[in-house]
Each structure stands twice: as structure tokens, then as C-alpha cells.
Write a structure and sequence with these properties.
CATH class of one domain: Mainly Beta
InterPro entries: BOBF_sf, CarO-like, YgiW/YdeI
CATH superfamily of one domain: Bacterial OB-fold
Shape: elongated
Pfam families: BOF (PF04076)
Largest sheet: 5 strands, mixed, barrel
Distance between the termini: 59 Å
Number of strands: 7
Protein name: TIGR00156 family protein
Keywords: Signal
Number of helices: 2
Order of helices and strands: HEHEEEEEE
CATH architecture of one domain: Beta Barrel
Length: 139
């Protein structure tokens, strides 16, 4: 009897794994454009606080800010550099941004989409990036 229960449980687990993997994949969005490594996927948006008074910075201003400064940028993610690093462009120039998979929140972003990125300036000895904590599609 115990053997039948064990085998049944093992088979259910084995056959449900592909559907669980697919479900977890659709939970994340991401970048869909040049050098993109993942197909676009859609998921339900998640809520949170929206600060309508947040001051938008330009890429040029960000380059002169201190490490760990909080910034808001509006523009376009043009391409993937590698892994979770991207080129972001606004009217003032370009800056490298890092967007961890969990911050896409199911949104698929292309180079044509205008986005708002919120995050922290991350200055290292060899360069500077913006460590993005929130991605909002504006159009």
C-alpha cells in the first residue's frame, strides 16, 4: 500500500514539473529587443506606491550624482549589454542600467517603449550603473 502511494506521488510530481516551470517563467517579463535572450511574456501587473511628485533626472545628471543616490529616469531601454545590464537612453545621453529579473513585474519592454526607471546610482572604481528597483511602462 505504501509503495503505491509513493509511486503515485512520484509520478504526479514528475509530470507536474514542466507546468510549474512554465508558470514560473510567465511570472517575469523582461526586455525584448537587441541581444534579448528571453521571449516576451505577459503576467498580471502588481501594485505599489506611486509617487507623482518624484523628480525625473537625466542621464547627464545621474553621472554627477553620489553613490546610492535615488534617481528616476524616463526614456528607452535600447539594448542588452549582458545578463541583466542594459543601455538606457534619454534626451541627454545614455547610461548603463542593471535590472534584476524580479523588477520587470511581468512587463515586456521593447526599445520602442518609453519607460520610467527608479533606482540607485551604483558607482564602482571602474564605472557607474543605475541599479533599477522599479520599471514602469509609460506608453
Amino acid at each position: 500500500m505504501m509503495k503505491k502511494i509513493f509511486i503515485t506521488t512520484a509520478l504526479i510530481t514528475l509530470f507536474s514539473m514542466p507546468s510549474m516551470a512554465q508558470a514560473s517563467q510567465t511570472q517575469f517579463g523582461g526586455f525584448s529587443g537587441p541581444d534579448s535572450t528571453q521571449p516576451p511574456v505577459q503576467a498580471a501587473p502588481q501594485g505599489g506606491f506611486v509617487d507623482q511628485n518624484a523628480r525625473v533626472s537625466t542621464t547627464q545628471q545621474v553621472k554627477n550624482m553620489r553613490d546610492d543616490s535615488w534617481v528616476v529616469l524616463e526614456g528607452h531601454i535600447e539594448s542588452r549589454i549582458h545578463s541583466d545590464h542594459f543601455i538606457f537612453r534619454d534626451n541627454a545621453g545614455i547610461v548603463e542600467v542593471e535590472v534584476d529579473h524580479k523588477y520587470w513585474n511581468g512587463q515586456t519592454i521593447t526599445p520602442q517603449d518609453r519607460v520610467r526607471l527608479e533606482g540607485e546610482v551604483d558607482k564602482e572604481w571602474n564605472g557607474m550603473t543605475v541599479d533599477v528597483k522599479k520599471v514602469t511602462k509609460l506608453n
